[in-house]
Design brief:
The complex is a heterodimer of chains A (168) and B (552). Chain A is an alpha+beta fold. Chain A contains 1 helix and 10 strands; from the N terminus they run αββββββββββ. Chain A starts with 7 loop residues before the first helix and ends in an 8-residue tail after the last strand. Chain B has a two-stranded antiparallel ribbon with strand order 1-2. In chain B, α3 packs across α10, α4 crosses α5 and α11 crosses α13. Chain B is elongated, with a radius of gyration of 33 Å. About 2% of the residues of chain B have low confidence. At the A-B interface, α1 of A face α3, α4, α5, β2 and α10 of B.
């Protein structure tokens, strides 16, 4: 390095200030940026409140049906009405509404009457009528909507995950 | 550890020359006369990085389409952590950029740093100034609020005045058919793709020339030993960055950048104004009328730019000490004074935004003062789920505008058109079209027009039964014979105060069989189902005896 007319102590001061101030500016820009790019979900999930999923009075026992309904979806700056579905089954004890996504990687599954189980076409996970994993790579039972009935109508709330070894 | 880092750095440097390049840059020789007055160029570079950084962040959450642009920006500033701050940094950063580039130019002009052999550096600088202004102009449209829309309408019209080229400029900016999707997309593309690329290119060339010719020394410094850029001048530059950054941060954190209502091409009361640094041009236009307008709009600005470009060729005298450059001071002072005078004149002559063009009927502060038509309109507001996207009064922001403030300047015709075909009158509106009948729509419009910021909260809270009664009253055409709150025909008795004169039972029986009470009555019987009957009787009883008692 060339010799510099400025004294060593002044050089050190300059250098320290340069590092300090640069770091300060960088921090003042990156901290808000991180908050901005990874927003906390302070507004809750995309689907708030309860959705009317339709009339379930004609639902047979232990035979799952896929119900389609419209629900409100908050997607960033857009609020829209979207078509959504749920697999609904009436068992001896309760009325269950499953989220229509396989718990493995989110594919849509269907009910197979012959084998009496839900089957996911992607990686052949199978679930019982009450959602327990029978086979395949699915890590946990089918997720369920919170449910509530008003007269003959089924209302769906949020989707709840049932942990591994779960069931109810 | 130190050894390891040294070895890694050496390895990288051997293969890329990176460290050597940085060192060459930092330990470049600069004249002994360098100092605080030469920080502005670096500050402009710094601000460019801040603008690029915040601009990219904004783009992460911004939808570049008219309408969506507005909603996504609203989402950024109201919902996202730090969103308001980042938009503030970008907005005020643009203003500061204009200031800093202006100061940079003034410094170079006063010191005569554009002289041979630095003419090309100066010319690149003038072009960079134009790019900064182009950034400001195109960025102004992107929020797609009323301010953005109207300022751009004016800009586009001015561009269209250019002799010979006007038509083509208009075509290029997509403004031949008025400001809409094409103009928006072109402005957006210019703002985020073309201008940044051009700016980086010219900046690199500009800085390359600065390094090539060296920082301009003062005549006194010639012959004195040179200094190194680092750390002395680097320190000064960085302190200047810091000062500007603190100012920028404080502005962004404390001064709200306005986001007005969604762009509304039918709003004839809006007073469009450009950003402050364009006000002088705007003001100058006022001096040229009719066919002379092109002089103020195009010819003078073009001449001014040409004059700026010609500066190094006009002033070719030998480099002098700044104390002897009286002419330079005089010219710069004159230009600044002219700019300031025009800007101040523009600010002083700006009229206040017109608040409200409406207000024929007194503001009803209570739902009981609404006419039955307005009350029915309130019911349709409920039925059509308008409240999913609109607040009546200020509240947690929703997707659509707050109606008490937004419906202020609207006419019934505008609202009719808007409800039938929302995006026809409000481009970019994502509101679904109404399926109400003409008659129902009339009620809804009457209600919306009744809203003011002072009564909206009260009108948001109308009991369901009252709304039901409003619809029944309207559908049964009671107003053809009765007056409620000053609205309706007078052939039958007025209904205000009927609740004080009659009991609930009497009212119910009278609805079912009016002739039982007065054989001469021409009122038809109304055998409402129980729920409707209760709603109607309650409504009659809720009507104020004298609508004026509530005042307004």
């Amino acid at each position: 390095m060339d010799r510099d007319p400025e004294s060593t102590s002044r050089r050190t001061f300059y250098q320290r200030m340069i590092y300090g101030v640069s770091s300060l500016i960088a921090a003042a820009l990156t901290v808000p940026a991180v908050g901005y790019l990874f927003p906390s979900r302070r507004k809750g999930s995309a689907h708030k409140g309860w959705t009317d999923a339709g009339d379930v009075s004609a639902l047979p026992l232990n035979e799952p049906r896929e119900l389609a309904f419209q629900r409100k979806r908050v997607d960033g700056w857009k609020t829209s009405s979207e078509r959504a579905t749920a697999w609904v089954v009436r068992t001896d004890q309760e009325l269950i509404a499953f989220s229509p996504r396989c718990t493995h990687l989110g594919c849509g599954y269907h009910w197979e009457t012959d084998s009496d189980r839900f089957v996911c076409p992607c990686h052949t996970s199978g679930f019982s009528v009450t959602g327990e994993v029978l086979e395949g790579p699915a890590p946990r039972p089918l997720d369920r909507f919170e449910t509530r009935t008003e007269g003959n109508r089924l209302w769906l709330g949020r989707v709840r995950t049932i942990p591994e070894n779960g069931g109810q | 550890m130190r050894d390891l880092i040294r070895r890694i750095l050496d390895w990288v440097d051997h293969r890329t020359g990176f460290e050597t390049a940085v060192k060459n840059f930092l330990f470049d020789d600069i004249p002994a006369s360098s100092g605080w007055h030469q920080v502005f160029g670096s500050v402009a570079l710094f601000l460019f990085f801040v603008q690029a950084f915040t601009g990219v962040l904004l783009a992460f959450n911004y939808a570049p389409q008219p309408g969506d642009a507005y909603h996504s920006l609203q989402y950024i500033v109201t919902q996202i952590t730090g969103g308001r701050l980042i938009r503030g940094l970008h907005h005020w950063g643009a203003s500061l950029m204009v200031v800093v580039v202006g100061l940079h130019m003034i410094q170079v002009a006063l010191w005569g740093a554009y002289k041979k052999p630095r003419e090309a550096t100066w010319i690149l600088g003038v072009l960079l100034l134009l790019l900064v202004l182009a950034f400001g102009l195109t960025g102004y449209l992107l929020p797609w609020d009323n301010r953005a829309y109207w300022a751009t309408v004016v800009t586009i019209q001015i561009a269209g005045l250019a002799p010979l080229l006007g038509e083509y400029v208009l075509e290029f900016l997509g403004g031949a058919e008025g400001v809409g999707v094409s103009t928006f997309t072109r402005f957006y593309t210019l703002h985020v793709l073309m201008l940044p690329a051009l700016t980086v290119l010219l900046m690199v060339l500009h800085i390359h020339l600065v390094r090539k010719h060296g920082v301009t020394p003062s005549p006194r410094a010639i012959g004195l030993p040179k200094k190194k850029f680092y750390p002395g001048q680097a320190f000064k530059d960085l302190m200047a960055f810091f000062a500007v950054f603190v100012l920028l941060f404080v502005l962004a954190a404390t001064v709200d950048v306005p986001l007005e209502g969604l762009a509304d091409p039918s709003d004839s009361t809006y007073v469009p104004r450009p950003e402050w640094y364009f006000l002088f041009l705007f003001q100058m236009l006022k001096f040229f009328e009719g066919r002379w307008e092109v002089v103020g709009a195009v010819i003078l600005p073009t001449l001014a730019v040409l004059a700026l470009l010609a500066v190094p060729f006009l002033d070719r005298a030998k480099v002098k000490r700044i104390q002897q450059r009286t002419l330079a001071f005089a010219v710069v002072g004159l230009v600044l004074a002219g700019w300031l005078a025009l800007t101040v004149a523009a600010v002083l002559t700006t009229p206040e935004q017109v608040a409200s063009a409406r207000g024929t009927s007194p503001a009803a502060a209570d739902w009981r003062l609404l006419t039955p038509v307005e009350l029915a309109g309130r019911a349709y507001f409920q039925q059509e789920k308008c409240a999913e996207c609109h607040n009546l009064a200020e509240g947690e922001p929703k997707m659509g505008p707050t109606l008490a403030t937004a419906s202020h300047r609207k006419s019934a015709e505008w609202l009719t058109e808007h409800f039938r075909n929302p995006s026809a009158v409000a481009p970019g509106s994502s509101m679904p079209a109404m399926t109400l009948s003409d008659d129902e729509l009339t009620c809804l419009i009457a209600f919306v027009l009744k809203l003011t910021p002072t009564n909206a909260a009260a009108l948001a809270a109308v009991p369901d039964d009252a709304m039901r009664a409003g619809v029944i009253y309207h559908d049964s055409q009671c107003g053809a014979c009765h007056v409620v709150n000053g609205s309706g025909e007078e052939s039958g008795p007025p209904l205000n105060g009927v609740g004080q004169r009659r009991t609930a039972q009497w009212l119910e029986d009278h609805f079912r069989d009016p002739q039982k009470f007065d054989p001469q009555s021409v009122m038809p019987p109304y055998d409402f189902p129980p729920e409707d009957m209760k709603a109607m009787v309650d409504y009659m009883q809720a009507l104020p005896p004298d609508p004026r008692q509530f005042g307004d």
